[in-house]
Amino acid sequence: MNATGDSGGVNQRRNSGIDVLRGLSILLVGLHHIGLRVPLAATQLSGLLPHWLLQGLNFNGSEAVIVFFVISGFLITRRSQERWGDLRRVSLGDFYLLRMSRIVPLLLLVVATLSVFHLLGVPNFVIHNPGQSLGAAIAAALGLYLNWYEGTHGWLPGGWDVIWSLSIEEVFYLVFPLACLLLGRLRLLVPVLILLALSLPFTRAALTAGGNEIWLEKAYLPGMSAIAVGVLAALLVRVIPRPGRHAALVVSLVGWTGLCAVLFAGTWVWTLVHDGYGLLLAAAAAAIVLGAHWHESRTIGTAPAGGLNWLRSCGRLSYEIYLSHMFCVFGGLALFGAYGPGGRWRFLWYLPILIGCWLLGYALSRGFTLPVERHLRAMFQPTKSVERETASQSLNSL
């Protein structure tokens, strides 16, 4: 899922609406990974809340990653337009440096920690499936093909498994600046992106027929199609920077309606659109992002109402939380399984585990990723065509 996003310059403001959407997505990922082991429907909450709500909270992790992909495509394209003015003037070296300084340090730290846990035999972190090995898992994680490795060799432990979305997103961004330079004008780039986006239902149908459950969820092309939807949304903003007064609200409402339908009435949506399910979800996420961008283009970027600052905070830390949250999930489940309330009261485990995920993400952000990002960017000094960025403004991209 990429959750890696991008980094903004010293004069760039974060978009609070997009941060809220990203925070919701990382929350759904956390709820999903806890719910696979402690389903809410098997707790006391089953008598208090409707089944569709509990299922929607627990089993939309894959959908959340698609939302991440859309957000990432939008933000990367917008930042590239702001830095270079025209996508045809993207600097390959600077683009890759900016991506590397954001993504690689934490990825290396997490892979190193997972490797140590494997060697120490820590439960839930040991790679033990036939045909798998620590060396192969490290190569797949750093070589951006962990999704392919799992599709051909089976599931890896949860801490490794979450890295699959980076394999898709970063491969896309290896190609993206090359496509901008080679295709030149938008009249060539846009049709390619549209074809990529519209391929999602057909790819999904082919993967379903193939019968590989892992590859169905983690194949390259569907994820890249979702990213392409985000890129197209960013290009649309260039054409329509400020629509009519109420357009942002209408687009946002349509997007949120579509997203909620997929999250909480997914079976019904599937009966209507079948393999178009993923494309509908990506389009809904893009509509929310567009509405948030258009809204803030008319306002001063104040915090969203309704006490959503905590969700914004999760969105700001989404990359750190995403790569590290399985440490808290497994640790929290082991701790509460031994000392916490059991039986149908296990839903009480959720909140402290999720808080632990946020605290670990915050510690990693302040103590590692932001300082390292700042140091790398100061060391390599991107060319003057790139706006000088500081890690304190980092925007983060599943």
What gyration radius follows from the Cα positions, in whole Å?
A: 20 Å
**What structural class do you assign from the helix and strand content?**
mainly alpha
Helix count from the secondary structure assignment? 18
Flag low-confidence runs.
5-12, 384-398
Strand order of the largest sheet: 1-2
Output mean pLDDT: 90
**Rough outline:** globular
Order of helices and strands: EHHHHHHHHHHHHHHHHHHE
What fraction strand?
A: under 5%
Termini gap: 2 Å
Largest sheet: 2 strands, antiparallel
Q: How many DSSP-defined strands?
A: 2
Topology:
Elements: E1 7-9, H1 16-35, H2 51-58, H3 61-84, H4 92-120, H5 134-142, H6 146-153, H7 158-161, H8 164-183, H9 186-198, H10 200-210, H11 213-218, H12 220-239, H13 247-264, H14 266-273, H15 277-297, H16 309-316, H17 318-339, H18 350-380, E2 389-394
Antiparallel strand pairs: 1-2
Helix pairs in contact: 1-3, 1-15, 1-16, 1-17, 3-12, 3-15, 4-5, 4-8, 4-18, 5-6, 6-8, 8-12, 9-12, 10-12, 12-15, 13-14, 13-15, 17-18
Polypeptide structure, described:
By secondary structure, this protein is mainly alpha-helical. Helix content is 70%, strand content 2%. It has 18 helices and 2 strands. The chain has helices spanning 16-35, 51-58, 61-84, 92-120, 134-142, 146-153, 158-161, 164-183, 186-198, 200-210, 213-218, 220-239, 247-264, 266-273, 277-297, 309-316, 318-339, 350-380, and strands spanning 7-9, 389-394. Strands 1-2 form a two-stranded antiparallel sheet. The radius of gyration is 20 Å and the shape is globular. The N and C termini lie close together (2 Å). The model is unreliable at 5-12 and 384-398 (pLDDT under 50).
